[in-house]
Input
Amino acid sequence: MSSATTEATTGTLPNAAEAKGTVVLDGVTKRYGQATAVDGVSLTVQPGEFISLLGPSGCGKTTTLRMIAGFEVPDAGDIRISGRSVQNIPPYRRDVNTVFQAYALFPHMSVAENVAYGLQQRRTPKAQLREQVVEALDLVQMRRFADRKPAQLSGGQQQRVALARALVNRPAVLLLDEPLGALDRQLREEMQLELKLLQSRVGITFVFVTHDQGEALSMSDRIAIMRDGRIEQLADADTIYARPASAYVAAFVGQQNFFRGRVAEGGAAVDSPHALVRGIRSELGEGQQGQAAVRPEFVEIAADVADGRSPADALDAVNSVRGTVIGVAHLGETMQYLVGLGDDQSLIVRRPTPEAPDLAVGDAVVCSWKAASVLLFASDDAASAGGYVAPPTL
Output
C-alpha cells in the first residue's frame, strides 16, 4: 500500500507527544453556506480529562462534537485523536464512541444484546465478548437487568445501558451530546454524580456537550464556554464562576445583577442611575461606558429602618441601594428576593434560608455588598448575549 493510501485510511503518523486519549482541535472551522457554525476553534483535551463544551443553542458546541466524532467534516483546520490526524478517517474507525440524548437502543434486543452489539460487529470471540459485556454492565450497575428489553427500563436505566454500550469497547474518547437532557431533574442530578464517578473509574477522556451550566460546573475538570462558534473562556469551574473573562461568561454561568453607567474613580467603579457601584480597580478608562456585576448570593438584604445611618454601615460594605421587595421565592436551601429599584431595574438577592430575613412583597429594604464581590466590564462586552434576561422574574 502506498504512503498516500496509508495516510488516507489510517491518518497521518501519530504525534508521540500526544498520548492515547488526547484530543486536539487546531484552528477548526465549519461552515454551512454563508453561516459559520465553528470559527477557528483550537483546543487540547488531555488524556483522562472531563471537559464540557457549554453554551446556548447555536453556539457551535454540538457541531464541534460531531466533527470530533466524524459525523461532520471541517472546512479548515485539523483534528487529532491520540496524536493521529483523523481528517480522512470515518466515524466507525475512530477510537471514539458517542452517547446521544436519544439513547437509540435496539427495542427488540435485551440489555446484554444491546451492549454486545458493537463487539459482535468487530467479531470479538464469544468468551471475551461475554466477559466485556458483564464488565460494562457492572460499571453502570445494570447486570441484574441484562435480560430485560429497553421498554422495561426507566429513563435513567436506559441511559446507563447506552453508557455501557459506548464504554464496552473501551474507546480512547467518549463523546456525550446532552445525554441527560431527557431525564427529570432529580434523576438528572443523580446521573451527574454517577457519570463523574464512572469517568473517574474508567479513566477515559470525556468530552461533554451541554447547555446546562449546573451539569458543567458539577462534573467538569475544565469548561469551554462557547459563543458564536468560538471559545469565549476555557478554565476550571471555580475560575469560570469567580473570575469570568467577560460579561458574557459572567451572565451565562450563574446569575448576575448588572449596573450600567459611566466608569468612575479611576476605573474602580461604575456610576449607574441607581447606585455608584465600587469594585476592585480595573483597566477601564475614566468616563467610558461600563457595567458592574454582582452575584445574588453576595448581596445582603435587610428592612430599611430609615434611621439616618448609611445603609451599608452595619455590613462594612461600600455598595448599597434602597428598593422595594416585589417578589419572594423559597428555593429550599436559599430564599430569593426580587427587589425593584425603579425604572424597570431590579436586583436578585439570595440568602441561606436559616439566615434569611422575614420580608414580604411591598417591604422597603436596603441591599448591600462589598467591593470584592463586584466584577467590572466594558459596556461593549455584551452581557445580554447567550440567554441572560433582565429584569429577572420569580
In short: Residues 1-11, 384-394 have pLDDT under 50 and may be disordered. The two ends are 66 Å apart (CA to CA).
